[in-house]
C-alpha cells in the first residue's frame, strides 16, 4: 500500500519483495510453531481509493503446533 498519486513503482516494488520473501515450500519455525507456504504468492489487480494504492498479494499456508 502506498499513498495515491506517488506512482505505482513503489507499490510494485513492495509487491515483488513480498513475493520474493515467501517462496513455495518455505518453512518458518519458532518454538513449537511452524508455518509452511504451500502455494506461490499471487498478486491481484490493484485497488485504489481516495488516499491509497494497494496491490493485494495472496498465498496459501499451513500452520502447525509442533509437539
Structural class, from secondary structure content?
A: alpha+beta
**Total of domains:** 1
- Apparent shape: elongated
Stretches with pLDDT under 50, minimum 5 residues: none
Instruction: State the helical fraction.
Output: 10-25%
Distance between the termini: 37 Å
| Pattern of helices and strands | EHEEEEEEE
Proportion of residues in extended strands = 35-45%
Q: Within the largest sheet, what's the order of strands?
A: 1-6-5
Provide the gyration radius in Å. 15 Å
Description of the molecule:
The chain is of the alpha+beta class. It has one domain (2-65). Helices cover 19% and strands 37% of the residues. The strands form 3 sheets. A 3-stranded antiparallel beta sheet has the order 1-6-5, with no helix packed on it. A 3-stranded antiparallel beta sheet has the order 2-3-8, with no helix packed on it. It has a two-stranded antiparallel sheet with strand order 4-7. β2 (27-30) and β3 form a beta hairpin.
Question: What is shown here, in short?
Answer:
By secondary structure, this protein is α+β, with helices and mostly antiparallel strands.
Feature tags:
single chain, 67 residues, alpha+beta, three-stranded antiparallel beta sheet, 37% strand
Amino acid at each position: 500500500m502506498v499513498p495515491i498519486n506517488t506512482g505505482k513503482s513503489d507499490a510494485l516494488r513492495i509487491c515483488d519483495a513480498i513475493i520474493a520473501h515467501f517462496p513455495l515450500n518455505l518453512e518458518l519455525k519458532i518454538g513449537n510453531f511452524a508455518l509452511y507456504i504451500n502455494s506461490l504468492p499471487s498478486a491481484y489487480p490493484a485497488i485504489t481509493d481516495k488516499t491509497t494504492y494497494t496491490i493485494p498479494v495472496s498465498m496459501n499456508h499451513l500452520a502447525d503446533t509442533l509437539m
